[in-house]
Amino acid sequence: MKFDTIIIGGGLAGLICGIRLSQQGQRCVIISSGQSALHFSSGSYDLLNTLPDGTEVTSPLSAIKSLTESYPNHPYAKLGEERFSELALFAQKYLQEIGVPVQGSAKENHYRVTPMGNLKSTWLSSADFATSQSKDKLPWKRVAIFNPIGFLDFYPRFIADEFLKLGTESNIHLFNLPDLDLLRRNPSEMRSTNIARVLDKKNNLSELTQLLKRESADCDAIIFPACLGLDDDTIEIIKKEVDKPFVLIPTLPPSIVGIHTQQYLHNFFIKSGGVYMLGDSVKRAEIDNNLVKKVYSYNHGDIPFTGKDVVLATGSYFSQGLIATQDSIYEPVFGLDTSYANNRQEWYRTNMFDTQGYQSFGVKTNSSFNGLKNGRPIENLYVAGAILEGFNGIKEGCGAGVSILSALHIADTILKNANQ
Q1: What per-residue confidence (pLDDT) applies to 186?
Q2: Quick check: 19 and 265 in contact, CB under 8 A?
Q3: Common-topology check for domains 2-8+18-102+259-418 and 130-249
Q4: How far is 406 from 84, CA to CA, in rounded Å?
Q5: Is 223 helix (H, G, I), strand (E, B) or coil?
Q6: How far is residue 250's CA from residue 227's CA, in Å, rounded to a whole number?
Q7: Most buried among 96, 117, 262, 352, by the most CB within 10 A?
């Protein structure tokens, strides 16, 4: 099977790269084993919240110079200050263009409301999520917080307590709909995805909208758990009916906005001409003269995938893009060089909230994001996203930014080389 570019991994990095290439006329295939980390998304995309030394970042564009000078192995340092700024500003516009509605700017981080009701710095948030430009207050004096009775992955009381610290009072409303009783027979079924399928139904949506209007009469905004909106029109219908801001707060996983984004990007990639191989994994590759010649998957046996370029975007430990043994970290598809501490005691700290060493381990690349094998770059193999070395996506608040920016940069590099 012959393609222009073979992309291994169907998460955020793989999809963004594939869409960008397909829009420019490339024939691309994405080989994806299944569920990606997007299914656990908070609804926001972090670019840079903290420098590796712990310094808080309010303006990513202003802080990037310090990062690139001090941490040369960081993916952003490999992009360089100018390219980082260019891509960060472009990414917001690009997501909007392909139909992913977001709010925010790389010039200044804003603050999103977390599942516990406090404010956390971020780059871009879903357009429907509760946010603030200030870390000390919310844009409303009084809100109505709604939650389906029996939904245990959302905590209205905790949220109301945190809101009060920020100067916002809350009314809490627990509600029920007859169709939710079917889920409530088994508490394990009261999860966000199942609730969304109920609330997205037109008859339930109409009843819910009337309830929201009635119970929020004396409030400035309506706060709702992100357990609706698998269907594209649900949230817009509610917004048109209620006469005040209607915003969502993320719940514990699974994430409705993450699942919706994954499905949307998957469909957009296919509509752009891409081929998506779901439920398949790459088992080996043939490399000759520093070029990937053939890629073999489990589902296709001896039938190889061939392409001019290959993008490895298999994620980190969660999706087995990286495998940890007792004494090493390795990349299982190509056997690429990885960075990790030889002393296992440096991999972790006993306090789970400390910076963990293993989180910055990953695949080594050159400045063009070509994967290294035995110290030499493989010329047509690029590495994107969470599998990269040199950054801690959780502590630095840069995981989504690294995925999006590295994917866009690699796509542009492939297109540039193809046109030469």
Answers
A1: 75
A2: yes
A3: no
A4: 9
A5: strand
A6: 8
A7: 117
CATH topology for 130-249 is Rossmann fold (3.40.50)
Q: Could you tell me if 297 and 305 are in contact, meaning their C-beta atoms sit under 8 angstroms apart?
A: yes
- Residue 401 to residue 122: CA distance in whole angstroms: 10
Cis bond before residue 254 (omega within 30° of 0): yes
| 153 Ramachandran zone, left/alpha/beta (phi>0; psi -120 to 50) | alpha
Q: Contact, 363 vs 371, CB < 8 A?
A: yes
pTM of this structure: 0.94
Q: What is the largest CA-CA distance in the chain?
A: 71
Three-state secondary-structure class, residue 131: strand
**167 burial level (CB within 10 Å; 0-12, 13-18, 19+):** exposed
Residue 95 near residue 124, CB atoms below 8 Å: yes
Q: Give me the CATH topology for the region 2-8+18-102+259-418.
A: FAD/NAD(P)-binding domain (3.50.50)
pLDDT of residue 187: 67
Share of the chain above pLDDT 90, in %: 86
* Residue given tokens 């404010």 in the structure block: 119
Return the domain boundaries, the chain.
Answer: 2-8+18-102+259-418, 130-249
Closest CA to 365 of 384, 392, 347: 384
Identify whether the C-beta of residue 237 lies closer than 8 Å to the C-beta of residue 209. yes
Dig out the tokens for 223 from the structure.
């706060």
pLDDT tens figures, 48-68: 999 999 999 999 999 999 999
Question: What pLDDT, in 10s, does the model give residues 371-381?
Answer: 999 999 999 99
307's tokens:
């392409």
- 335-342 long-range CB contacts below 8 Å, 24 or more apart? 335/373, 336/312, 336/363, 336/364, 336/371, 336/372, 336/373, 336/378, 336/383, 337/363, 337/364, 337/371, 337/372, 337/373, 337/374, 337/375, 338/362, 338/363, 338/364, 338/389, 339/73, 339/364, 339/389, 339/390
β-sheet with 370-373: strand ranges across = 275-278, 28-32, 2-8, 306-312, 376-383, 370-373
Nearest to 211 by CA among 144, 129, 128: 144
- Pick the closest to residue 269 from 203, 313, 326 (CA basis): 313
**Mean per-residue pLDDT of the chain:** 94
